Amino acid sequence: MIKTISLFVLLVTGAIGYAQSDTSLLLIKKNYSRINAIKKWTKVKEVIDYKAYDEGLDNKVTLFYTANNLEKIKVILYREMFKKETQYYFLNNELSLVVDNLISYQKPYQTKNAKILTDKLYFKRGRLLDLVKEQDSGLDMPSNKEVYDLFQEEVIKIKKASKE
After folding, report:
1. Cα 28 to Cα 88: distance, rounded to the nearest angstrom
2. What is the Cα gyration radius of the chain?
3. pLDDT band of 98, cuts 50, 70, 90
4. What region, left, alpha or beta, does residue 92 occupy, with left being phi > 0 and alpha being psi -120 to 50 degrees?
5. Given CA atoms 158, 160, 163, 164 in this order, what sign does their dihedral have?
6. Would you tell me how many other CB atoms lie within 10 Å of the CB of residue 58?
7. Could you give the 3-state DSSP secondary structure of residue 88?
8. Is 159 left (phi over 0), alpha (psi -120 to 50) or beta?
9. Which of 33, 61, 86, 98 has the lowest tally of Cβ within 10 angstroms?
């Protein structure tokens, strides 16, 4: 009887945790749709000469604001055989979603027949909620906190570069 009650408690608490996670994902997805529906931004700031992971050419970073709230950061890295677009979305001034697109070219700088792989990482309170990863995208899965910290470091670096 005690085992049955314990199992029931585990199942119920697990279901509650899943429901809370599901609700959080729904809020993040609604926020994503809201941000992408914005046609007129209060402020759009481009960061010139942004130094990303390496010293590649033609890096472009754009920060999008409504009122004084940073809503989205878009980073584009151009390379000979690929283009990488990473978009950071914020909910209540907190990183909530990272959409990472890798566009691979078959020939240098040739976008025709390019292969696009997309990874989506959902966060809440500094924790990874969900990862939607396309096969062979190249994104390794570090620990839950490490993945958030990795993206948060990049956001801090971008914000700092935007103030210079």
Report:
1. 12
2. 19
3. very high
4. left
5. negative
6. 9
7. strand
8. alpha
9. 33
Average pLDDT of the segment spanning 21-50: 90
CA distance 148 to 127: 6
Instruction: Identify the DSSP state of 53.
Output: S
The pLDDT of residue 25: 93
Here the tokens at position 125 are: 């309170």
pLDDT at 10: 36
Say how many domains are in the chain: 1
Question: Which single residue is written with the structure tokens 């209540």?
Answer: 92
Q: Which domain holds residue 129?
A: 2-163
First to last CA, the chain: 65
